[in-house]
Write a structure and sequence with these properties.
The chain has about 400 residues and is α/β, with parallel strands linked by helices. The chain is built from 18 helices and five strands. Its main location: membrane.
Amino acid sequence: MKFTQFLKTRGSIAAIIMGVFYAIAMLGIFLPGYTAIPRNIDKLPIAIVNDDAGEYGATIAEQLQKNLPFKKVETDITNKKALKELEKNDLALVVHIPESFSADMQNGETSSSIDFTINDAGATVISSSMKSVVAEINNQLSQQFSQQTAQSVLMNFNVPEKQASELAEKIETAYVGNVVTINKIPDGMHNNMLPMFLTMASYIGAMIGSMQLVDAFKESRGKASKTRLFIYLQLTALLIAVLSSLAATGITYLVNEPSGSLFMSIVGHQTLIYMASFNFTAILIFLLGPAGMILNIPLIFVQTLANGAVISRDMMYAPYEWASHITPMYYSVQGYVADLYGSISASPFLWSLAAVGLGAMIINIIIVATVNKSKPSEKSAARTEIEEITKVLS
């Protein structure tokens, strides 16, 4: 057999096509998606809360709003409300200028500060970017309150030059940029990536499981009704979901050591994401057979960007942002972030995840009922079941 003949075999042709296809799919999805960092950093919403009635606060608030690279800047908001929105990751940064800031600065009080609050329990790029932004803000404010500027201000109040110099130095060192991090994630990349890794472990397992169980479903047709086989398929998937969830949770506790009170929550969450992912990936398998797996893998690539672990919805390009609303990974990752590290309830994300899974199951029921037509032997099995149920009822 010649090499050219080997290249013409079905396996060789399929391998060549798949190699080229997945290279194009992965790079074509990942590279454009990640150009949003840092290009779309200006789309992140922040809040500047100025409670200071003095000149300094107003000047700083105006300059920050003008110079910071953010298009969505909320100013008509209370600090309390802004912090609540930050907890939900509806804001990326809250800058709070306290009521006594101008008075403290003029009096050289060492307690005067501006609070910069960041939520660590969110997309990793957001937290790191905000810390860089805050560092730059503090550098600019340090220049603004330089010794020369402070001395000039004091001279306008007829303070002697020598005394003005001493007071200016005191004012210069009085400014403090107070960086506050809420919902701090424990050190270690394994903690940052835990929500995404837990989600992907279930998703990939469910995707492979859907291919195998749908194949078993089709092989068993004629031996029972489609309804019974579909129930068997779902029950088997649920059994796998529980077993794999216990295994995943066990490894998580060995490595990451989360709070013991979260054990059942993680097991339940893993079971839910498995079932949602199973039904979501089964749609293409029911429709296209094994070829459906070819399209399921690019869907993983899309969700890797669209799950919100690295970049938030505000930064995503439209296709990824749209995908985050209808695919399982986003809701699972955000639910885990809230449950493991956040201060808000994970329930809204889990209900959305359940809705995606239920919607996918309904689509699969429709496909099984309409696309996959019954075989004669299957119709006979279904008729027998109906007759048996009728006898029992009568």
